Amino acid sequence: MNKPALLQSIIERLTLDLDVAQRAAQTAYETATHEENVAENKYDTLGLEASYLATGQARRMEEIRQGLAKFRALQLRDGQAGIALGALVALESESGVRQWFFLGPDAAGLKFEFEGCTVMVITPRSPLGQSLLGKGVDDEVGMAGKVQVIVEVI
């Protein structure tokens, strides 16, 4: 797999997610501040609810911005010295099912298709990320109570 192209795909996906979050935050803000949503009594909470939503969307935008900055600054290395931040890792179960993981600085749980494979971003803060650090091909790790073998590190 082409790791620089994979990193670029992650950056593009986060950029798209940021755009979507910005539009959602703007819509929520406009709803919260619209003159028709001024509360007429204590039970009229549409404006208040929209302001909570706008605040949440603004936080989400900031999280995505920070993750995007971390991925843009990420220096890719080969996996020769063991798995570290920026590694692309293939794990294989005893039944032969292969899963791809990218050990990234942020955006844990981001899942997408790349070169015909599903890749999931994990971070070193996750249990799987912690167990992968420093390991190499043919090492075993536990995942969901089952043993997985590291079959490829890029």
Briefly characterize the structure:
The protein is α+β, with helices and mostly antiparallel strands.
Describe the overall structure.
This protein has 154 residues and is an alpha+beta fold. The relative contact order is 0.16. The protein contains 3 helices and 6 strands; from the N terminus they run H-H-E-E-E-E-H-E-E. Strand 5 and strand 6 form a beta hairpin. It has 2 domains: 3-73; 79-153, Chitinase A, domain 3, CATH 3.10.50. InterPro entries: GreA/GreB_C_sf. This is Elongation factor GreAB. GO terms for molecular function: DNA binding; translation elongation factor activity.
Strand order of the largest sheet: 3-4-2-1-6-5
The CATH homologous superfamily of the largest domain: Transcription elongation factor, GreA/GreB, C-terminal domain
Helix content: 40-55%
What is the average of the pLDDT values? 92
Shape: elongated
Q: What CATH architecture of the largest domain do you see?
A: Roll
CATH class of the largest domain: Alpha Beta
Helix/strand order: HHEEEEHEE
Helical run tally: 3
Helix/strand-derived category reads: alpha+beta
Radius of gyration: 20 Å
CATH-defined fold name of the largest domain: Chitinase A, domain 3
* Tally of distinct domains: 2
Unreliable spans are none
Oligomer: single chain
Question: How many E strands?
Answer: 6
Largest sheet: 6 strands, mixed
Distance between the termini: 8 Å
Strand percentage lies at 15-25%
Keywords: Elongation factor, Protein biosynthesis
GO molecular function, one term: translation elongation factor activity
Organism: Pseudomonas rhizosphaerae
InterPro entries: GreA/GreB_C_sf
